[in-house]
Specification:
There is one protein chain. It is built from eight helices and nine strands. It is an alpha/beta fold. The longest helix has 18 residues, at 192-209. Helix 5 (77-84) links the parallel strand 3 and strand 4. The two termini are 33 Å apart. Bound molecules: iron/sulfur cluster (SF4). Iron/sulfur cluster binds at residues 133, 135-137, 140, 142-143, 177-178, 229, 231-232.
């Protein structure tokens, strides 16, 4: 998001990417907004993330907040370009309604929002391959923040991993809300296992034939499943 904001000429924006997984997380997001504005009063504070998606009015009502962006909107360059046009009067004027809220119906989103290709700043890098969840565990708010299960097409995943490896990453972590659901919305038979096989396939070939460095000449793909989150 920093790149998107900068690319739209919004160098003076601070983004708070909020979490809604517990009430405490939402409270901490609001505290972060207040602290940011207190320490950097000239900055326009834009709030996004799951807490903003679930309750945009709560954040829009805060005097410190210039705009509230939904989870689908936040990764779209046009959203930030729209903010750029109104930078001088950003507060409450970031959208046609004048409320400062740009939060759509996340349940209506049918494809994974276009994340900019990640940059490798470290040895280990993350690539989001899936978002959202079609389950409805009674205690869990995540589907209302992230929407339905959507997968990133394999060609996009491979493009991003190639870019990361070329930038120095040596370990790539595939991330998602419900990774086991990967591919179901894209095509019959596409699964997380097939995706991993596709990623690792060139690795085996290249090691044997001595091709120039390519997508999977070195990466290690790891899986991480939150131990406490279980399906209902
Ligand atoms: S499967 Fe996980 S993310 Fe989905 S509703 Fe259940 S706890 Fe939440």
């Amino acid at each position: 998001m920093r790149d998107l904001a900068t690319g739209a000429g919004l160098g003076n924006v601070a983004v708070v990417n909020s979490c809604a997984v517990t009430a405490e997380a939402g409270k901490q997001a609001r505290q972060a907004v207040r602290r940011l504005k207190r320490e950097q009063p000239d900055r326009h504070v834009v709030v996004t993330g799951c807490a903003a998606q679930v309750d945009p009015n709560l954040f829009a009502a805060m005097p410190e907040v210039a705009a509230v962006l939904g989870n689908d909107e936040k990764t779209r360059p046009e959203t930030w370009r729209g903010l750029s046009l109104r930078e001088t009067t950003l507060r409450r004027l970031a959208d046609a309604s004048g409320t400062g809220i740009q939060v759509g119906d996340i349940m209506a989103a049918r494809d994974a929002a276009p994340y900019p290709a990640p940059r490798a700043a470290q040895v280990r890098a993350s690539v989001q391959v899936q978002t959202g969840c079609d389950h409805r565990c009674t205690f869990c708010i995540i589907p209302f923040g992230r929407g339905r299960s959507r997968s990133t097409p394999p060609e996009t995943v491979i493009r991003d991993i190639r870019s990361l490896v070329e930038s120095g990453a040596r370990e790539v972590v595939l991330t998602g809300v419900d990774l086991t659901d990967y591919g179901r919305d894209l095509s019959d038979g596409l699964t997380l296992g097939r995706l991993v096989k596709t990623i690792l396939g060139p690795c085996r070939t290249c090691r044997g034939c001595g091709c120039p460095r390519s997508i999977a000449s070195r990466p290690i793909v790891t899986f991480s499943t939150p131990s406490r989150a279980r399906r209902g």
